[in-house]
């Protein structure tokens, strides 16, 4: 059974990815902006909200942190053989970007329902795409088959120590930027981001002798396998027919990774689910009240603050991780039309 990652591991990853992944900003979502954007009801009832804008990464997502941390540690022989992964989009781009930076071939197994925006972006980074059906287990099995056949090195999307450690640099940054935050929210699918953010913050706070913020995960109620696993303390798997219903394409994974689950049980305080309508409202708010762009998977954290504060611990300062900003143009047009209709 692998050990939990350490603060030394995270600091090493932070140094390793510097210059490739960027230190992303915390953007305060002011009450004045909420009122100006037509969301006055939220302005009166929310705490101070800070958005951790992972869309500022070169690929528009936090996934670059873990992918580069993994690939940067491969030998010259492994890089020469190439790398492979399975992903619905953002991790695909992370691996493609990191592989290109290290001079390695990248093969990505993607589902047939992956957003075209993310497929094209992955191709543009030079990766070879292999398409399978919509189930997350199907793409994992295909990637493992090709790994064995061609000698590629697997770069798992979440269930890997180096990937978790890379994502943990996001949590370390949050602690360095706002050490007095009372609550930090992160999206959860396979668990790479949530396990990393929670580990980074809790370990950094412990080392500094500081009271750590509470860390909660957020996911769609249509793909709530992580909440069920957390609540029952038993790793469960949902069928693809259920998880693929959500608009949040990056959160359709059918189960948490085993390593991620161990870190989540150790460092995470709770998990909340949100509805599809709540995700859409959060997306419209981000577009209307900020200069940021979030995809549905990233907006689940803000949706949680807006609609589920009663389920969360009280906090004066809350950080919501916006995990990515690769918003489909057609969906953006829909959201903007909805906002015009509501305000007309």
From TrEMBL:
Residues 22-324 form the Tryptophan synthase beta chain-like PALP domain. GO terms for biological process: isoleucine biosynthetic process; L-serine catabolic process; L-threonine catabolic process. It comes from the Bacteria. Keywords: Lyase, Pyridoxal phosphate. Pfam families: PALP. Its cofactor is pyridoxal 5'-phosphate. InterPro entries: Ser/Thr_Dehydratase, TrpB-like_PALP, TrpB-like_PALP_sf. GO terms for molecular function: L-serine ammonia-lyase activity; threonine deaminase activity. SUPFAM superfamilies: Tryptophan synthase beta subunit-like PLP-dependent enzymes. Belongs to the serine/threonine dehydratase family. This is Pyridoxal-5'-phosphate-dependent protein beta subunit. The lineage of its organism: Bacteria, Pseudomonadati, Acidobacteriota, Terriglobia, Terriglobales.
